[in-house]
């Protein structure tokens, strides 16, 4: 087995619990038939698919990085053993993360991205002609440089004069800045026990750091982890309930992402009501955006925010608030040396 990085909870590897390795399967003649990527989603559930090749692997001060050429999903970026995005369907995640917030805002000119080192979130924001300034704050310069070099689809975004790239902890950056933003986007890694960024999902962070940096009428949106029929109780419902304690209007929504092997969730929040209907979202998109979305339009967002009965019941009954002392995590463990909150 040619290991990319260690597996989770089985006593092998370096113990960072990232659950990713590549295994070579041999045919009867002894020749290698195929190489597979494998991620441990839960203790008794693994997700794997065939690889054409491993394009690059590396490690920064904060994270392990791999770029894989997969047979079903094209190039795939893997960080800390978690698939971040795949070439064939990353547009679903990034269109869902970015456009509902920007299109619900009356006139978004300034946007702050927490994380987003891959560049795809910035790429989607920069399609909006109203946007004058995007601040992308990621703590890991090596990941950003890696993505600049290997993810061709985002090179134009990295060169856009409206994009201001800052290498820093997003919490520290927001706390020390004096300016405010029309939209703040959380494109963070998932909250993992021992991982670097779970503190950026807490009520105290939303209340004392994020909300004060929003302009009047501002919108905050964050990725909120798995939101499937069984997986939504991991962190999605808790993040939703936490934002309800901080903002007057909160909208959870979700979409199926094939390469994640699950439905994924986002939560959008503001102190200004979300009153834009599907038709107006489409009108704003045509007027404000360059090019057409592949996935998201008004009707798609209306559908995405109409959650299934089982998820709605959980969200309605959720009482836990995400704090440093009562944090919830998705399956897996972060490396012990990553002690800083990461964005």
UniProtKB/TrEMBL annotation:
Q: What is this protein called?
A: Uncharacterized protein
Superkingdom of origin organism: Eukaryota
């Amino acid at each position: 087995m040619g290991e990319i990085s260690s597996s989770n909870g089985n006593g092998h590897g370096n113990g960072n619990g990232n659950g990713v390795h590549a295994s070579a399967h041999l045919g009867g003649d002894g020749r290698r038939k195929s190489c597979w990527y494998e991620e441990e989603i839960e203790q008794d559930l693994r997700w794997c698919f065939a690889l054409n090749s491993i394009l690059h692997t590396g490690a920064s001060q904060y994270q392990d990085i791999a770029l894989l050429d997969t047979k079903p999903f094209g190039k795939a970026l893997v960080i800390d053993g978690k698939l971040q995005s795949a070439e064939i369907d990353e547009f679903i995640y990034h269109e869902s993360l970015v456009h509902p917030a920007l299109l619900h805002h009356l006139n978004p000119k300034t946007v702050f991205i927490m994380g987003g080192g891959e560049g795809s979130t910035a790429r989607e924001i920069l399609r909006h002609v109203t946007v004058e300034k995007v601040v992308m704050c990621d703590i890991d310069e090596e990941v950003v440089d890696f993505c600049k070099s290997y993810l061709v689809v985002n090179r134009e975004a990295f060169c856009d004069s409206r994009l201001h790239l800052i290498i820093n902890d997003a919490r520290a950056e927001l706390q020390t800045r004096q300016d405010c933003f029309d939209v703040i986007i959380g494109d963070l890694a998932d909250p993992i026990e021992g991982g670097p960024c779970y503190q950026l999902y807490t009520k105290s962070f939303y209340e004392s750091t994020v909300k004060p940096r929003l302009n009047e009428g501002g919108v905050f949106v964050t990725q909120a982890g798995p939101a499937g029929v069984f997986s939504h109780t991991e962190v999605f419902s808790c993040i939703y309930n936490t934002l309800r304690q901080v903002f007057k209007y909160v909208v959870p929504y979700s979409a199926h992402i094939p390469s994640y092997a699950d439905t994924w969730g986002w939560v959008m929040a503001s102190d200004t009501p979300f009153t834009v209907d599907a038709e107006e979202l489409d009108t704003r998109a045509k007027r404000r955006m360059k090019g057409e979305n592949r996935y998201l339009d008004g009707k798609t967002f209306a559908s995405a925010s109409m959650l299934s009965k089982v998820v709605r019941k959980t969200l309605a009954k959720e009482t836990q608030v995400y704090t440093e002392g009562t944090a919830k995590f998705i399956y897996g463990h972060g490396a012990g040396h990553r002690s800083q909150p990461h964005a």
